[in-house]
Structures are given as structure tokens and as C-alpha cells.
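To assess whether ligand presence alters the predicted conformation, the chain was also submitted together with magnesium ion. Input:
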Amino acid sequence: MTSRLRLLLIEDSAEDAAAVVSVLAADGYDVAEECVDTPAALADALDRQRWDLAIADYAMPSFSGVSALRLVRERDADLPFIFVSAHHGEEAAVAAMRAGAHDYVLKDSLARLAPSAARELRDATARRERRRAEQRLVHLAHHDALTDLPNRTLLQDRLDQATRVASREGTSIALLVLDLDDFKDVNDALGHHAGDRVLQHVASQIRGTLRDADTVARLGADEFAILLPFTDADGAVPAAQKILQEMGQPVVVERRPLSIRASLGIACFPVHGTTAEVLMQKADNAMYRAKMDGGGVAVYDPLRDRQTHRRLALISDLLTAIEEQQFELEYQPILHLRTGAIAGVEALVRWNHPRHGRVQPADFIDLAEQTGLINPLTSIVLNTAIRDWGVSLGTSPLTVAVNLSPRTLLSPDFPERVADMLAAAAAAPASLTLEITEHMLMSDPARSLESLKRLHAMGVRLTIDDFGTGYSSLSYLRRLPVDELKIDRSFVTGLASGQDEVIVRSTIDLAHNMGLSVVAEGVESEAAQAWLMSMGCDAVQGSFICEPGSAPAMREWIARQHPGTV
Ligand code: C2E
Ligand code: MG
Ligand code: MG
């Protein structure tokens, strides 16, 4: 069997070169040789291609064998190197071996060359394999196995190095932390295999939008970090937006199109911190803020950092509030527009915080939702609302409306819990209205629909709140067992100035065509109410009619305005 041998000869004598080649060829090698005898030609040959074996003369007129060896070692640490030379004495051989040659064969005993070459080729292969294995281990220790991106350790090194360069040169660095939104849902719904595919896709997408000098690392689960050298916040924001935009392109996973969203936080050297550790912490904080704000990009802001601490404190306060029932309900009446009769009241929760005083729902509902505390809170609100109006429930046309949060509708035992509460208060289901938002329906349409059907079958009324602010399609709404649409107050407020007239008018027509009644919330003036009346709106709610008030205050108001109702 002949094996191809790429042989680099460093030899000034054509005759000697031919002798070497013929010895090797006789031993079965298919020799492809090149012969050089100057440093420049040697360097060129080494740069041009890979070699299997180098054989050099020890002493040439224009070039010493030892300096040739040095040149070879600079470029290829593993290339087997054998001197084939006339006898220059014991010392020359020792010097040659010491300089890193593998063997020294005398020209007059060339028979030794073939076995020596065979041994050195074998050893070189073993050396190369070991080196590759070592490199692989070093790589694994610094890279993430799933995406092959640098891991946290390598990022830390690069960040340390980048901060040193930046402080020496007076330049900036931007550190971005990216976290996928709702990644857990992908894993839960499609399985871990699909989750892995998504992570790999995201990794290559981020890598693809950036320059080679930028580092993209995977920090863990669905968290990535990006290091942009010579970049300040002004430069980092567009880069971050570009990443999010790329990620927004739907990807097909398990034959389903998925659109991936993420939240990105940015911290910069030196304005937000000067060490790797502080920058990581600040970028993380900014990412967290971006997430709270509903995704997108946020630059670290010390003011909002303090709010994060407040938020953590608030979570623990909220837990106490639920245990100690620090909540109070206010009610706002809803009137039939045509008759002016009372249609019902909407329950609006307030938190009497022991230190901050009265906290509005806008400041804690999201928090309760994110921490899972919304379910016990909703139970408290439902129980209180049913108890407050239980007497009139079922005995008068008045209904009490309670707002739901997305999570509540997804908990499978919710319809049963509502049934139990109504039964315990001996209240008629038809006197309870649940307000749901379009947004709520979109998070898991199938499961939401299931819950809604069961509630509707029990006789509970369903209203779509804040209508016009979501993206639900008409065909989807048509399939829902809802009774009513509530036009979002932002459109109603705009009515007085004639602004949102078209939207409101078409919403009312649309709802009526679908057999739904329409409530307008946020009615702040007589003018708005008159517009709504002329457009055929069914019911109104807002400060023009009555501000929200406590249960006794509301009962009094109703008794005054609508004697005989309560
Ligand atoms: P929403 O369900 O759309 O409630 C109507 C909001 O509009 C209430 O704010 C109410 O006070 C306010 N409002 C009433 N009349 C007017 C008016 O003429 N003009 C204007 N600009 N606003 C008016 P509130 O009480 O601060 O509640 C805000 C949101 O918090 C509610 O919006 C609802 O989404 C949520 N929320 C309130 N209570 C609960 C609850 O018990 N559970 C859940 N999950 N969410 C609640
Ligand atoms: Mg509402
Ligand atoms: Mg609303």
C-alpha cells in the first residue's frame, strides 16, 4: 500500500534530495516533495500548504539546518523534522536534537531513514490527536454545548479584558443581557427538543446580526449576553433593536411557526459600572426592567434600579396583604343609556397599604399577576363583591362586574370556584359579570375558551373589557360565548373632541351585528354621553355619571338616584 507523503526537503544538493526521495519511495511512500534552500523559500512553502515530514541538510552554504528548524517550529509545532546530513560530529547531532529535531540520519546510512520517518509520522499523528483533544477540552470549558457560543466563564474573561482596554484608551463598552420572553411556554407546549432548536436558532440569529469583534455568550437557560467593544448606549440601542427585529421573524419549529420575543437590558462601561461584575448586574437589572415594561430594550437607569428594590419589597407586602386582607373594593355604576336605569356596578380593587396608603390597581395588579398572587386576590375580590351585593343579586336586574386577569382564566378549577362562591352566597349566576380582556384570550385561546364556555353555561355573564386595545380577530370573537363589549376608555375620552368617533361607531355597529350589547367606559362629559346615545350605545360608565365609591356609598347613591333598586 502506498501512502501519500507531502515531503518538505531543505537541501541544496539535488543529488542528495533525489537520494532521500528514492529511499522513501522504495519503502512504499508516494512522495510529493518540494525542495528549498533559502529561508524565504522555506517560509513560503510552510505558509502555502501543510506538510507531513521535513527533512533537512544540517549544513548548507546559504542556510543553516538549525535556523531552518527554528523557522519550521515557529509555524508548525508538530511537523516531524529529521536531519539527513554528512557526519559533522557527535556535537552537531546533540545540538540538532536539542533544537527540536526528531532524528539525525547520516547520509552514508540512509537505510535508517525509512524506519525513522515511519516512527516520526506515527508519533506526529498521536501528538496532533492529543493536541486536538486538549483544544477540544479547553473549548468545552469555555463554550456552551448546545449553541457552541462562549459561556459565562469566557464572557467574564473577555469582559475583564475589554474593560482593561477601554479604561486604558478611554473608550466605552456596552454589555447587553437578553432573555427570551415566555420561553417556558415553548418548552411546555412543544417539548424540550423544540426548545433546544429555538435556542440554537436564536444563538445563530444573534451571532449573525453582529460583527466578529463582538462576543455573544449564552449565560444559561434562555439568557444570552452580548459584549460590544467601543460602543456606548447610543450605539448599543440600535444594535439591540436590530437583534429583536431579526428575532421577530417567525421561525418554523416542529412544523409550527413561532415568533420569538425577548427583553434586552443594556449597561455601559464606564457610565454604569467599571467592573465586569457590576456591568453584569446592571445589564441584568435593565433587562428585568425591559421585561416588566412588556419586552423590548431598556438601558440601565439608576432611578429605576431603586424602583426594583421597591418592587421586591412590594411583592412581600402583597403577600402579607393577601394574608391580612388589606384590600377594599370600590364600585362604579353602569347605567342603561336609553332609560337611565341602573344596569350594574363594576368592582374595582384598592389596596390599603399600611405605609404607602391607598394603592391603585395599576400599581399592583401586574405584580400580582407575575407572582401568581392574582388567584388568591381574585378570590378575595369575587367573594367580597358577591357578599357586598349578594342581597340584590338575583332579586334585582343589577349585576356586579368583576375584572379577571389572564392567569385566572387559565386555572382549570376557576369555573368550579365561581360556582361554589355563588352557591355559598345563594346568588344567581346571571347577576355576576366577569370582565375579560382581549389580551387575556390570546395567551392560550383554547384553554380560555374552555373556561369561558363553562362559566357561560353556568349562566355567568361575560364582557370583553378594554375592547379595541388588543388584536383579537372578529372571527375569533364570534366564537366566544360573550354577552357584551366594553369600549376602552381611551376611545371614549377622545369622543368629546370628535376624534375617535369612527372607531366607536363601528365598534357599536359590529357588536350589535354580533348580537352583543355595548358599554362605554370613561364617560367624562355630557357631550360624550350624548354622542354615545346618538350612536346607539347601550350602557355607560364613567366619572360623568359617578366616580367609584365604597359599597355603602354606592348603595346610598343608587337609592337616591334610582329609588327601589337596592
Ligand atoms: P377597567 O376594568 O377598565 O376599569 C375602569 C377604570 O377606569 C377604573 O380604574 C376606573 O376607576 C376608571 N374610570 C372610571 N370612570 C372613568 C372616567 O370617566 N375617566 C377615566 N379616565 N377613567 C375612569 P381603576 O379602578 O384604577 O382600575 C384600573 C384597572 O385595573 C381596571 O381597568 C382593571 O383592568 C384593573 N382592575 C381593577 N380592579 C381589578 C380587580 O379586582 N382584578 C383585576 N384583575 N383587575 C382589576
Ligand atoms: Mg373592567
Ligand atoms: Mg376597561
